[in-house]
Design goal:
Layout (H helix, E strand, L loop, with lengths): L3 H13 L3 H10 L4 H11 L5 H25 L49 H20 L3 H9 L4 H15 L11 H13 L11 H17 L1
Helix pairs in contact: 1-3, 2-3, 5-6, 5-7, 6-7, 7-8, 8-9
């Protein structure tokens, strides 16, 4: 079953300028399954218009026909058989003795040595992303015993997305819905409150998006009915 709220979140993040990779990692850290995240990203990806598909097919047909015509024009004519003439081998030319280089005369130090292969550079972005992810994990561990200190550490992170991910993690670990209010991105903040509602906490009224709020309340009422 497609999670419409998750798909909407992915679309909003793509419009904001985040890459699919960043969005995927963010959702996985929030506790969503890999299958739901991949489905949401696939659903959020815009499809190719039919007009473009038709144009591409026509272009492909034209290219194939052009190649066939070119091959037909360039096809070689049948070879005309010509009687073989006797090929005379050139006489072996003797090299003067003074031009012969002895082994001892070769200076190995003068032979150019090819440059060594360059060591592949590690992308700075990947390194920074990995370091941020490890730091958030450390802060999450701290939040289990020192939630106030963990909150301060989250606020010291570099980017808005890193801070939001950090607040989501420590809010869940410390079981403190109030930390959701620290999240700057509305969709992420709403999802944070929704996560607590799934655990039975009454946090639906804090959600701004009406669709997600409605889903949250329906979920809560369904759980109450079942119990």
């Amino acid at each position: 079953m497609v999670n419409t709220s998750l798909t909407k979140y992915v679309k909003d993040q793509l419009k904001t300028g985040y890459s699919k990779k960043e969005i995927k990692q963010s959702l996985l850290r929030q506790g969503h399954s890999k299958t739901d995240v991949n489905t949401a990203i696939k659903q959020a990806k815009p499809g190719i218009p039919l007009a473009w598909i038709a144009i591409l097919l026509v272009a492909a047909v034209i290219i194939v026909l052009s190649i066939l015509v070119y091959i037909k024009i360039q096809a070689p004519e049948k070879e005309i058989l010509v009687p073989k003439e006797e090929i005379k081998m050139p006489e072996k030319e003797e090299i003067p003795a003074e031009e012969i280089i002895e082994k001892e005369e070769i200076d190995l130090e003068k032979i150019p040595v090819p440059p060594a292969e360059k060591i592949p550079e590690i992308k700075i972005e990947e390194t920074q992303e990995f370091e941020a992810s490890m730091k958030i994990e450390e802060i999450k561990e701290i939040s289990l015993t020192e939630p106030d200190r963990a909150e301060a550490l989250c606020s010291d992170l570099n980017t808005k997305m890193e801070k939001d991910n950090c607040y989501v993690q420590i809010a869940g670990a410390a079981a403190k819905p109030a930390l959701c209010a620290k999240i700057s991105e509305q969709t992420v903040r709403d999802q944070c409150y929704f996560n607590f509602a799934v655990q039975g906490r009454k946090t639906c009224d804090n959600i701004k998006d009406e669709e997600i709020k409605k889903s949250c309340k329906n979920f809560l009422s369904l759980n109450i009915t079942m119990t």
